[in-house]
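Minutes, project check-in

Agenda point 3 was the complex the collaborators sent over. CS summarized: two entities, 749 residues total, and the question is how they sit relative to each other. Sequences were read into the notes so everyone works from the same version.
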Amino acid sequence: MPPSSAAYWFARCGFSAALLLLACGIATAWFGNGLQLPSTTTRDGTLITLNRYVREPIPDVVLVGSSLTFRLKEEYFATPRLRNLALAGGSPVTGLELVANQPRLPRIILVEANVLSRSMDAALVAKYSRSDDAEPLFFRPIRTAVAAYEDRLHAPLNHTQVSSSLHRLIEQPPSDFDNSIYLERALQQWNDEDPTAAVQMNVMRIKQLIPEIERRGSRVLLFELPCSTQLEGSRSAKITREIVHTAFSDPGRWLHIEYARAELRWADGVHLDERSAAIVTQSFDKALSSLRKSP
Amino acid sequence: MTFTSWQFGAFVAIVFGAYYLPPFKSLQVQLLVAASLFFYGYGQPGLLPLLAVAVLGTYLFLILALRNRSLWLPIGIFFNLALLAFFKYKFLFIAPESPGVTGLPSIDFLLRLPLPIGISFFVFHNISLLVDLTAKQKQPPDIKSVFLYIIFFPQLVSGPITRAEMFMPQIQPKYFGDIPFVDAAKWILTGFFFKLYVANNLNEMTSYMDFPLYETLQTQDRWLLIFLYSYQIYADFFGYSAIAIGLGLLFGYRLPINFNLPYISVSFSEFWTRWHISLSNWLRTYLYVPLGGNRDGALRTYLNLMIVMGLGGLWHGAGPGYLLWGLLHGVLLVIERPFLGRLATIDSTVFRVARIGFVFVCVTMLWIFFKLPNFDHAVSYLSGMFTSSTNPNPPKLFHDLALVYSLPVVIQHFVSRSRFEQTVSGAEPYLYGLMAALMYLEAGPETSFIYFQF
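CS then shared the predicted structure for the full assembly.
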């Protein structure tokens, strides 16, 4: 190819590349990065939750926790303006730090006290704590198109939309799924680990954060989600419970949720199944309602 | 320094800038050798002496073999195979963290050295050098040419495996005016597009195939992911090879084509003429033919095929999974061989499509031994593809994303090249421009090239 033809080829190539970049740049400046990209990994799912939290108005009630709390879907709650910031595979302290680092706080922050053996994700906290974090210059055109399509197909539901199906779900009998294999594995893992050091560190951090948060007008309460009897008797669960209850011995620091334990199931041995999660969210609703009524 | 890092971009720009400057005109080979040594030493400086030992040792055996081929050629080949075997398979017998295996510090130091990147590739270059040059010429080439052939940086880490008789004649003065810029750009853009857009994005999804995550997958997603991995490993390795070919052109060297639409093969023997072509050619030339090839009857041919494919599997890595992968390909080659002639006489599009589908599914299933080198995990994954999943909370995979990230591989394979070129003939540069923009905008998270581990 003669040099002039090669130069012409590169000019056309560069032109189309620049045109697409320009189009994406203008679209990003015009629309922002508001369209949440679909997640392909658990980590992406975490980011979706957090992106929504920092972009949307501050809710009244926020839950922070691990994958146990992650199962309590927001649309299950009748309590209005409630957001679940639990991080699957993460620590409740990460969520608490993130909430505490925002300029405005919700009225009530509920902190899960079941899984405190994981350390805080400092990178995640730093990422969502920077108010001057620059938006990307360009959005991703393919992912954005897929996101728009997915959003259209699976728009987030609210409590009104799901209340009748929730009612039907709760009316059903508890699942008879045999979870013994999963439970055995989880039990072995929970018995093998000694979470003492990590739990002590996390509890200390929670104790530091609570007065800082409450000075700003918010209220922090801890809660424990029900686990299967075997898991609650595991080494990790016992150590965690002992440390947390020693550190937070005041009953007023806890949100007491009441539920019919016999109705609950943990299909994978650890996490509440859908029906049980719906039952537990109803208990949360009741507890939060009475909390609002109390002086 | 990986091909997709900014450091590599800066490195290529500097070397390319200097390569055609008048002061370096007579030092082009030396410059490329120095650049290649820098490239290799950037990641593993401690292993540069090993590279030097491999090259200098091979050069010594080359000189000796030119005097007495029957004696020194086998010794030279043994020297290289011993190097490969030592570094590749020593960790089968010793733990890398063990404090002292022999009690001799120098031996223990060698035993603890990590696997040198690209050793499988440069050892094959060394053997090709010994065999090709001692067969045809009497005078040894100069040492700098030998160094360049073995360690030329675009092909040093993962090939293509270039035969000495093809590369050595190309070592001549190069001129800026001879550079096929557009061809080089097409190869490089295509390579980066397949790596960044296809392979890295698919890798996000196929990470669910790792142990123990695959245990949480639904049965249908296990099937989906194994096909996605098939596309990923192709895009990853084809991408690397395309970048290497494009870089070679920038410096005046034509490297062999490594892939030719392997997933449209109608037979397993055709697949091996389309997938990792430079390795297939190497194994055929330096192993299958010397073993007797197909000259000594059917049974001996089958045995040769099994030996070549078994060793080809072990070349990828030390482990029963790689061996089994190679042997299973050998079995497929052996089974189809008696029927190839008869199958070729059936002239039917439907039958041809069915054959392509069958070969593709078999090849795809066998990639599991690459994704999960632990044999038990691979078998567990495969068996899970045929039993229903019981996990109540499986991960969600976006099928539309899987489709859009796989699409380039599908289009490349199944849209007729001539028809495609006719359709986009005037729009070709625009298309490459869009690919360049897309690979920047939609690049998946950085992951190393799959074949770097070999």
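Noted in discussion: The beta strands of chain A are 61-64, 82-84, 108-112, 219-223.
Follow-up: revisit at the next meeting once the mutant set is ready.
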